[in-house]
# Entry
Amino acid sequence: MACTKDKAVLIWTVITAILWSAFLALRVTIGGTCPAPDLQEDFDRERYLGRWYEMFRHVDVPYEVGDCATATYSELSLNRFEIDNKEWLLDE
# Structure
């Protein structure tokens, strides 16, 4: 029984669709969704815009290897924000 290229593509497409469907079904039923925290009343977002400096790092994490970390929060259009995180390597 010869398997043509079109038939092989169809089989792999069906297998992929089944696996993705199973993943999504398990994600919704078992994994659930992230909790929705209550929003802060009277939140003044203007107060949090600008540059923030890291004063203390409680635990070493593998992706934070630099020093003098900053986070700069800027407001974009359509109620969106940009966050620019930076670190400097002072040892080099």
Helices lie at 5-31. The longest strand covers residues 67-75. The chain has a mean pLDDT of 86. The chain has two domains: 1-32, 45-88.
